Model the fold of this input.
Amino acid sequence: MEEQEVFQMPRIGDPAPDFKAMTTTGMMQFSEYIKGGWTILFSHPADFTPVCTTEMTGFAVLEDEFRKMNTKLVGLSIDSIHSHVAWVNNVKEKTGIFMKFPIIADIDMKVAKLYGMLQPGEHETAAVRAVFFIDPNAKIRLIMYYPLNVGRNMDEIIRALQALQTADEHKVALPLNWKPGEKAIVPPPKTIAELEERLKSNYEMVDFYLAKRDL
Done:
């Protein structure tokens, strides 16, 4: 039996692996590009394919919304820079949507391997639909993986980003289906004194370990 190559997959909490690559907006040193804010790095299997076109235009339509959330977008597929440029132009001509964010040309699969986007059980030479949320400290905070035949949910990507930023700002946790404007979960007490203080608080309490508050 032929032995499969094993690709390291970054984990939540790991530093975002650095790389240098050509993109549709020029050469990129990833560690420099992501400084000063949040970044969403996402892969698609191939240019000029239907599901990928719906996804990439979905990101493009919401790019201003991401920018307001201090978040940069970076796409990737295992295609050449010439293919990327032709596809961006084609999509603009056919739909009127311009993908202004950089798309990494990863024809040697270097970045895809670095980020565990190649999963041989799904496909040997096409990146799965991976999404990496990277915070201002260049740390990976959330990872999503989708198979080749299922498109992502942009509402959930926006919601997840809002949740990460809110949790960081207010030092809270967020419950199932949380959306901006809803109550957050207060971390549970770690001492008897904290427990007594919790019981005297005006938090919405299911019990002492599950309490919510307005932000």
